[in-house]
Amino acid sequence: MTFDLDHHGDAEVGAGLIDLAVNVRHQPRPAWLSEPLAASLQDLRSYPDSRTATAAVAARHRRDPSEVLLTAGAAQAFVLLAQAFRGVRRPVVVHPQFTEPEAALLNAGHRVDRVLLREEDGFRLDPALVPDDSDLVFVGNPTNPTSVLHPAADIAKLARPGRILVVDEAFADTTHRPGVDHEPESLAEERGLPGLVVLRSLTKTWGLAGLRIGYLLGPGDLVERANQVQPLWAVSTPALAAATACASPVAVAAEREIAAVMAKERAHLVDSLRNVPSVTIAGEPAGAFVTIRLPDADRIRLELRERGYAVRRGDTFPGLGPDWLRIAVRDTATTDGFVQTLTKVIEERS
User: Fold this and answer.
1) Which partner for 149 in 75, 112, 286, 346 could form a disulfide, CB atoms 3.0-4.6 Å apart?
2) Domain ends where: 200, 217, 251?
3) Alpha-carbon span 156 to 174, nearest angstrom
């Protein structure tokens, strides 16, 4: 089966549609973020200087600045890694997964092996499925599109000397566990695992998709390899201002509050979907989205568009297919309207 690895949720969105296809939070930005962004526009005559932002991100994750590389969105990090490590013998992508890692590897001339997690296992990671001789492994946590949060201990089992293990934590700041004041299962502060590289994004929670800001965390030598293939001044001055602001203690505390609210909104969406005929939910959702399987999902998606809702098709993800849809977590009122419409569409087709 051929998959359109270059298809993304923004292609689903159109004028007048309620956006459930893109996993970017829609609420207004707080003053502690919007004010530095506005102020940064006064400095555009100078080339970007990433030192302050790099130091801020390093401090957030208790790392040395040499272990941080700021990127033009987490997606650029996939390209840098694919280019920097052309000499690997057997790159592997664990699917279902965000498709950019595989696309970047293929564009860099790699031959890519896929490890497919199974629906009957809840799309949970089984480290034993990854071939022992794979020397570059990509896995998402929580995984886009399934929203499954893998135990950090299971991911850690994939780390070994001679292997680069890349963990995409673009949605880690959307995860929440009651009684825990940090991101559950994140490896962003882990420095003891060989070859571990963690990718992060600031575009989701803070609504900065158009600004393009993310970063890469890892051992200094691997970070420097990626840095060597990154274009000069790849991250703009406004994006650097956002990175500095979003690494502050105020921002981290706000993320935890937002994640707690999102957990309630996600639970409401999951509970509502469980009452919809013919709908099966993928795994145990833990991120900013929920993926479902239902018969004729490709046609139902088009009928939902006609009734004002954009959702993400699932047939572009290896390991899924045309009977899958991904739905962004929104406020409960939006969820109620969507689920009511989805139920009506399904009932009319039965």
Assistant:
1) 286
2) 251
3) 21
The verdict on 210 and 66 lying in the same domain is yes
**Chain position carrying tokens 């956006």:** 19
Q: Closest Cα to residue 217, out of 73, 99, 65, 88?
A: 65
Please list, residue by residue across 38-52, b when 16 or more beta carbons sit within 10 angstroms of its beta carbon and e when fewer do.
eebeeeeeeebebee
If asked whether residues 20 and 67 sit together in one domain, one would say: no
In a domain, 77, yes or no: yes
Nearest to 312 by CA among 8, 6, 5: 8
Helix (H, G, I), strand (E, B) or coil at 313: strand
Strand order in the sheet with 68-71: 68-71, 214-217, 196-201, 164-168, 136-140, 91-95, 113-116
- In a shared domain, residues 155 and 299: no
Contact call for residues 218 and 192 (beta carbons, < 8 A)? no
Burial 226-249 (b: 16+ CB within 10 A, else e): bbeebeeebbbbbbbbbbbbbbbe
Angle between helix axes 74-84 and 220-228 (nearest 10 degrees) is 90
Q: What is the pLDDT along the chain (350 residues), one digit of tens a residue?
A: 678 989 999 889 988 999 999 999 888 999 999 999 999 999 999 999 999 999 999 999 999 999 999 999 999 999 999 999 999 999 999 999 999 999 999 999 999 999 999 999 999 999 999 999 999 999 999 999 999 999 999 999 999 999 999 999 999 999 999 988 899 999 999 999 999 999 999 989 999 999 999 999 999 999 999 999 999 999 999 999 999 999 999 999 999 999 999 999 999 999 999 999 999 999 999 999 999 999 999 999 999 999 999 999 999 999 999 999 999 999 999 999 999 999 999 999 87
Residue-number span of the structural domain to which 125 is assigned: 31-251
Are residues 131 and 65 part of one domain?
Answer: yes
Question: Among 251, 278, 306, where does a domain finish?
Answer: 251
Place of tokens 């706000």: 254
> Is the same domain home to 21 and 71?
no
Q: Would you say the pTM of this structure is higher than 0.90?
A: yes
* 13 plus 45 within the same structural domain: no
Q: How far is 337 from 346, CA to CA, in rounded Å?
A: 14
Tally of structural domains, the chain: 2
